[in-house]
Write a structure and sequence with these properties.
mainly alpha, 75% helix
Length: 119
Amino acid sequence: MSLSNIIADVKAKAVAAKPYLIGGVLGAVATVIIEFNAGWVVSNATHHDTLADARTNAVASVCFQQASAYWIAEGEKISDLEGWNNAERDKLAKRFTPTVDDVSSEEVASLCGRMLRRA
C-alpha cells in the first residue's frame, strides 16, 4: 500500500467521522448547560450560600422557639407580635438571638422577627 493511498484513506475516515465529532462536542456542551440549569450540578459558591442559609435558618428557628416560649410564659398572646412595625417583636427577636460562629446575628434576628410575625 502506497503512502498516497494511506493518506487518502485517513482523509476519507476523517471526513466520515466529522459529523460524529461535531455531534459529540455539541452534546457535551448541551449536557453541561442542562445539568447546571436543572440544578443537577451545583457550583461551590452556590453550595456555600445554601449552607449559610441553612445555618441561619436553624439558628433563627432556635431563636423563634425560645422567644415564643418566653412570650407565652409572660402571659402574652402570640398574635400581639403580628404586623409590620412591631418594636416588641424586634426587641424579643434580638434578645433571643444566639451568637454562633459563621452566622450573622443581624440576619438571624431579622429572620427570627419574620418568623414571630407569622406565628
